[in-house]
From TrEMBL:
Catalyzed chemical reaction(s): hydrogen sulfide + 3 NADP(+) + 3 H2O = sulfite + 3 NADPH + 4 H(+)
Species, as recorded: Buchnera aphidicola (Hyadaphis tataricae)
Any Gene Ontology biological process: sulfate assimilation
Cofactor(s) named in the record: siroheme; [4Fe-4S] cluster
UniProt protein name: Sulfite reductase [NADPH] hemoprotein beta-component
Pathway: Sulfur metabolism; hydrogen sulfide biosynthesis; hydrogen sulfide from sulfite (NADPH route): step 1/1
Keyword Lipid metabolism: no
Role according to the record: Component of the sulfite reductase complex that catalyzes the 6-electron reduction of sulfite to sulfide. This is one of several activities required for the biosynthesis of L-cysteine from sulfate.
Amino acid sequence: MKKNNKIDVKKNVTDAERIKENSNYLRGTIVEDLKNDITNSFTGDNFSLIRFHGMYQQDNRDLRLERYEQKLEPLYSMMLRCRLPGGVIKAKKWLKIDQFATQNTLYSSIRLTNRQTFQFHGILKKKLKDAHKMLHEIELDALGTANDVNRNVLCTSNPMESLIHKSAYAWAKKISELLLPHTKAYVEIWLDQKKITKKDKEPILGKTYLPRKFKTTVVIPPYNDVDLYANDMNFIVVSKKNNIIGFNVLIGGGLSFVHGNKLTWPFLAQELGYISIEKTLLIAESIVTTQRDWGNRTNRNNAKTRYTIKNVGLENFKREVERRSGVTFEEIRPYNFTNRGDSFGWKKDICNYWSLTLFIPNGRIDDNNNQSLKLGLSKIANIHDGNFRLTSNQNIIITEIPEDKKDDIEKIAITHGLIRNISNLRQNSMACVSFPTCPLAMAEAERVLSFFITKLENIMLKYNVEKETIIFRISGCPNGCGRSLLSEIGLIGKSIGRYNLYIGGNRIGSRIPKIYKENITEKEILINLDFLIKVWSNHRQKEEDFGDFTIRKGIIKEVVDPVYDFWN
Ligand code: SRM
Ligand code: SF4
């Protein structure tokens, strides 16, 4: 294994590295698999390679056993995630998305994600090219929305709220473009374009791409609606007289861990320094290439930026970024976050248009017996010339609404359940997708969120705190997609019907909560929360948030250094 006492990296690299190296810039044999109609699945390395093109192979886990007993192949289909930096899409384009979901997917729904984009679940292999071609027709793509690349770039929602918002959104798009894979594999395979170049090149990502997924945000204080502390690279806007003059740069956030593995831990993004605006792309590139070259390629559990920083030290990482970019970081400029979540209802923008923020339960846009959100949104899209803007909290903002369309849009929204009276608690809650489509799910999340919220609403009513809010989130496994580790009360799935209960995060999402009870049932969770909310309602200081209260009262120890405190 060792040569001259050095680890032979090539020999020790993970299978994921071998797959990338041998893929011919992400082509593999995907084209051959598409011609094979005996199975609905992708074979060998292609299972992983299609992720770089924005798709995941899944099967319906509710039907797995039944199909196994019938000796049938699992019901394979693909989830496809669109690239939509800042979450902005023309309302008219939405109609195509809506139509595709209805006509070509097994579930007929569209799922808004907490990274400002949408996913289709249940596309059969034979329909995949149609999906990519439809996206291309409306000037979208799914490139780089999954696997070891920079993912969909987040930006504080509603770019029309101020000139700063508009410009921040432009930066989110520029960063997304800069860090995209350059390979032409995507257009060749999915859009049937002829091979254009003889030799592909990946000047930033490199032939083996990044060691692991990489996440970026552009944020405008005081709104932390993007949950920046969960991301690898963050640009916090610093402005003067309505102009962005530069960014505070924070790196190394991430929320996943592995149950029982103390070498894995969540971590909050840390401050690197301030840069002036013209250095932005240079710095983005240098941070990414440093992580590309220094990140761990022998253990995927320790491959994200936060582990690289832990290994080499923040100062060394910073010096390397400065060396590569030729830019010296200045001292961090003062900034402050006071808000998270979305603010619902009507608002006027800088051009005197209106915007309407709608609550979408779990981000799931579908029609069923109780609601017709999908139909409602398509009716709005039909009469609206402006944009839909997807938020990092799985909601949607209809923007650029002229005064004379306001009433019509509101009427449709009310008729189809898109405007409803809901509690603050519900508005601020979140769950990941989990069952039935997520192959990694250990416990339910999306499908039990409403149940938990209704029970918690009753508990809060009982103790006269029903007007208050608590950031409550559920993730079906410790990958933590529901960002439970930035909540005041977070559940993380252990097995069917059982969760770890975390408390002690704060309202603005800059403190990681800690485990309060391990592996408990839904009933036990509610008994514990009834007790905690009762104590909070009786003993909190004026307007003290739930998370802060649990720390002040010593109910849970504060997580200061997550590497140690998260586990001990
Ligand atoms: Fe996630 C994997 C869904 C945001 C951490 N995530 C998955 C997969 C693709 C399962 C898989 O690998 O097969 C899930 C697909 C479920 C399905 O059926 O749709 C999945 N993640 C989601 C979404 C849809 C959750 C949602 O309800 O909104 C989010 C899609 C975002 C997007 O549009 O790109 C989503 N995932 C997150 C977040 C939150 C965030 O980014 O703000 C996290 C935690 C932050 C972080 O990255 O640390 C997150 N997802 C993971 C991980 C753990 C990564 C790690 O660092 O170890 C995995 C597993 C993996 O990558 O190996 C994962
Ligand atoms: Fe799936 Fe786990 Fe992510 Fe939930 S947290 S979507 S269960 S990977």
